[in-house]
Amino acid sequence: MGRVNLPYVDRICDRRGVERFYYRRGGIRQRIPGAPDDAEFHAAYRAIHASFEAGGTVSAEVPGTFGHLVAAYYAASEFAQLKASTKSEYRRYLDGVRKVWGRLPVAKINRGAVKAFRDKLADRPATANAALRVVKTLFAFGVDACLVQENPAKGIRALKTSREGWMPWPPEVLEKFAAESTGAARTAFFLALYTGQRRGDVLAMRWDAIADGKIAVVQAKTGAALRVPLRPALVAELDRLAEERGGREGTIVQKADGSAYTDDGFGTIWNREQHRLGCKWPFHGLRKCATQVLFEAGCTPQEVQAITGHATLQMVQHYGQGANQARLAEAAMRKVDGGS
């Protein structure tokens, strides 16, 4: 046994004189493919070493594979610096792709493979585009970290989506979910529908943030600090929930033991409840529903923005495009004719 001039690397010769190299640290040993003269060897070594230096553990994934690239990204500072909600979103997409590509050598994942991956999600173009963005980010990291030679996702165009973007829930689906949903999914549904907030902000809402008929929200995405008035239907649902739990402590959306949900943990129970009720509509569509209700009630874009916290009035108006045109048109004509 000998040692090459790299920290934590052991060289082992078998009975046939074949050399193998391992990264040994903290009681863990992982094979490094190739030899010290190979680029593949040094790329794998850097990924494993970076994982330990970042305080993580060596992935069981084989160096040089897509799975190992994902593990190296998770251990890197680029991933550590992301917001918690962004990390959760990235993991959701990358872990799904890793189940399919995990053992593939990254060198064999070409532009055609990435386009085929995108096109498998073509029936959900918004999801396909989001997943493509994450894969592009992963390979860009890989190029910078010298784990891959090129980014096969670079330059691949997003799929066309409808101008409406996120679709609001149909009235009959809203009614069914409001009438039949249970547990944390029900609570989150009511909070999202009646406050117009994003999922992460809904999960962060606390009982002690409610005062004077309003709930305080600091949006994770924008940093906007809002005080959103509670509508009667939401007040009734919260009163029922507090009576059921016997108190108003912690986060409003919580597990049976009173602890808060992670985004991934909530996603599991949300999908399960949607499947049970046959109401498979995006959570973010509730934000669009809330925006449209405000417009239909005659609110100005500025008033809607004060509730939803959208960063720009342009985005507010984009979300309100599907508001009931006939109702708004009648209201406009009443103003023209001097009616009420």
From TrEMBL:
PROSITE patterns in the record: CB, TYR_RECOMBINASE
Pfam families, per the entry: Phage_integrase
Domain Tyr recombinase residues, every copy: 164-333
Gene3D superfamilies: 1.10.150.130, Intergrase catalytic core
Keywords: DNA integration, DNA recombination, DNA-binding
Span of domain Core-binding (CB): 64-143
Entry's family note: Belongs to the 'phage' integrase family.
Name this polypeptide is given: Tyrosine recombinase XerC
Naturally occurring in which organism (per UniProt): Phaeospirillum tilakii
Gene from which this protein is expressed: xerC
